[in-house]
Amino acid sequence: MKIAVCDDEKHFIAKFKDIMDKLYNSLDIITDEFSQGDELLRRFRSSPYDIIFLDIEMPGMDGITLARKLRALSDEVCIVFLTGHVEYAIQGYEVNALRYLTKPADESKVREVIDYVLSKQANAKQLWLKTSDGDVKLRLSDVLFIESQNQNIAVNTSDDTYVVRGNISDYEERLAPEGFFRIHRGYLISLDKVIRITGKEVIMEDGTPLPVSRTRESKLRDVMFSFVSREAF
Q1: Among residues 110, 105, 187, 96, which one has the least CA distance to residue 143?
Q2: Relative to the CA of 210, which of 93, 105, 106, 174 has its CA 20 to 30 Å away?
Q3: CA nearest 156: which of 170, 171, 174, 143?
Q4: Angle 107-123/10-24 helices, nearest 10 degrees?
Q5: What letter would DSSP give residue 76?
Q6: Neighbour tally for 158: CB within 10 Å
Q7: Mean pLDDT computed over every residue of the chain
Q8: Fold of 2-123
Q9: Closest CA relative to residue 204, chosen from 214, 216, 195, 217
Q10: Domains of the chain, residue spans
Q11: Which of 120, 134, 33, 18 is nearest to 76 (CA)?
Q12: For residues 144 and 206, is the Cβ–Cβ distance under 8 A?
């Protein structure tokens, strides 16, 4: 896990580092410290973090502005605001902040946040692929769609495509309970990654249009309605 803390107060950074060393010294957790928002933003673009503890009141780029920029880059990063002013909470909803912690940060509250994210990561559904370059572990939440290519299948994410030996029917059986649906003999899609359905195709989150078989159009809409209703609760 990679964690960043951004605060212009050096004594707070030192205190936070002491807490991390005490609680998680034996785990594979990397903690980077930043005193300016633009510095953190540059680093995040090339090497994203899992959790960011972010002071709201900083000179230059304030924490709320920085959080908006970070959220534009990633829906996955957990943002935890550090502040003594509860009136900022409403703005935090705009960037889907995980928590607000009052300063100085309480050790037990820091532990609660990190343990929650560690548990969430441990329970994340994963897909192992045996590629020509070795085994690759993907989060199911990153998969957009799977395409049949003769004796191979291509697993597509927003960042890459992985081609492996396999039968798309095997993946359909395995992934249907996880929110995947076969829209065509050659395509298995993640319902969570669909942004639009027309009569003959779906548009995926990355803008890719995929064909829907005529015999599967009605079933797709039924399955999508059930999926969206389930995810709403």
Answers
A1: 187
A2: 174
A3: 143
A4: 60
A5: S
A6: 13
A7: 87
A8: Rossmann fold (3.40.50)
A9: 195
A10: 2-123, 126-231
A11: 120
A12: yes
pLDDT in tens, 73-123: 988 899 999 876 666 555 666 677 888 888 888 899 999 999 988 888 776
Q: How confident is the model at residue 233 (pLDDT cuts 50, 70, 90)?
A: very low
126-231 placed in CATH 3.40.50.1000? no
Task: Flag whether pLDDT at 47 surpasses 90.
Answer: no
Q: Pick the closest to residue 16 from 63, 80, 68 (CA basis).
A: 80
CB 112 within 8 A of CB 88: no
DSSP string, 152-214: EEEEEESS-EEEEE--HHHHHHHHGGGTEEEEETTEEEEGGGEEEE-SSEEEETTS-EEE--G
Of 62-71, 108-117, 182-191, 222-231, give the range with the top mean pLDDT: 182-191
Q: What is the pTM of this model?
A: 0.57
- H/E stretch holding 39 reads helix 37-46
Average pLDDT of 48-67? Answer: 90
| Beta bridge partners of residue 33, listed in sequence order | 5
Query: 92: closest CA among 124, 107, 70, 119?
Result: 70
Tell me the Cα Rg of the chain: 21
